[in-house]
Amino acid sequence: MTEAILLVGGKGTRLRPMTVNTPKPMVPAAGVPFLTHQLARARAAGVEHIVLATSYLAEVFEPYFGDGSALGLHLEYVTEVEPLGTGGAIRNVASRLTSGPDEPVLIFNGDILTGLDIRALVDTHETSGADVSLHLTRVEDPRAFGLVPTDPTGRVTAFLEKPQTPEEIVTDQINAGAYVFRRSVIDTIPADRPVSVERETFPGLLADGAHLQGMVDSTYWLDLGTPQAFVRGSADLVLGRAPSPAVPGRCGDRLVVDGATVAPDAKLTGGTVVGAGATVGEGARIDGSAVMAGAVVEPGAVVTDSLVGEGARIGARTVLHGAVIGDGAHVGADNELRDGVRVWCGARLPDASVRFSSDQ
Q: What InterPro entries does this protein map onto (predicted)?
């Protein structure tokens, strides 16, 4: 079908502490590194060759995925010495592409969970004769995003960054982070310096008269940049709301990965995933949460909409609601952490030492 570039170099600062030891695309979602879902969906759409543009913790990717043959893919890895931005990262891997000048190259951002019809985007690109085609999605409140208005034929007419006033909001269509480039267009991106494809490349192409085509696909789309979004995305994969052929088990209320131990009377709901080697004690209740490999949730704990890092321990009767517990952290018994509280990797909270809620 075509080849692809996956942009996986970001530091994932909004997702800390989950990204202190692990690059964001490798944080487990529904039991496997999130990147696995993107690779599997690309392969299902007919993509065979993918170049990963890496930077932050670049050494993590290749030991896990190797040459990609286990997924039916040919994977290559290119590491940026200094961060180059989205456009710079695309240009930096150009030498690894095999497509001819007029052939399509798919570009994906490594932090977007989407139900995009990849084949339809490529078909739109080819039938429209575009230089670049963009996946667009519609959102209720577009103020945090870049707007992409189009004419009646779908041709992009402007790029509008994060409008705030009603007059500036001329469309609900936003850039959804997946593109198809004509191969020759990639070579026009400046080399060896940071370039933003959203703020420099696309507006520049439009100003030069290039044909940029938009395709609206609003099936499922979620930016996994924050802990709240990431835990929701993982749960939606488990529940089957977000499509992926890489979920290691049947979709449903819970996913218990092989090697995990869950007490018979523990209650797991809302798309909760319990990673390999993790333990959930008697009477624990976990809803819409991700418990990473080797973590321990002790008896009677209540965990809701939270991320529990690898090797972390949640004490008996402790309550987590919308919390993020870093790798190897230990939250003692009878604590209560709510409303976005984050506990850093390796931190220790004594028994009954913290009570945090929105009314305090």
A: GMPPB_C (IPR056729), Mannose-1P_guanyltransferase (IPR050486), NTP_transferase_dom (IPR005835), Nucleotide-diphossugar_trans (IPR029044)
Higher pLDDT, 9 or 255: 255
* Both structure tokens of 331: 């939250």
pTM: 0.89
Output 291 or 11, whichever has higher pLDDT.
291
In contact, 234 and 252? CB cutoff 8 Å: no
- Given a cut of 70, whether residue 103 has pLDDT beyond it is yes
What number of CA atoms fall less than 13 Å from residue 157's CA on the CB side?
9
Cβ proximity of 40 and 246 under 8 Å: yes
Instruction: Give CA–CA dist 65/114, Å, rounded.
Output: 21
Output the CA angle 297-301-34, nearest 5 degrees.
50
* CA gap 44, 49 in Å, rounded: 12
Bridge-based pairing of strands 28-29 and 32-33 is antiparallel
Phi, psi at residue 32, to the nearest 5°?
-140, 160
The phi and psi torsions of 80 (rounded to 5 degrees) equal -80, 130
- Phi and psi based region of residue 90 (left: phi greater than 0; alpha: psi -120 to 50; beta: remaining): alpha
Looking at residues 256-265, what average pLDDT do you find?
Answer: 95
The 10 Å CB-count burial string (b at 16+, else e) for 82-120 is: eebbbbbbbbbbbebbebeeeebbbbbbbbbbbbbebee
| Farthest CA pair distance, the chain | 64
For 182, phi then psi, to 5°, come to -65, 130
> Which residue's structure tokens are 């609003």?
218
Amino acid present at 120:
A
How far, in Å, CA of 312 to CA of 344, rounded?
10
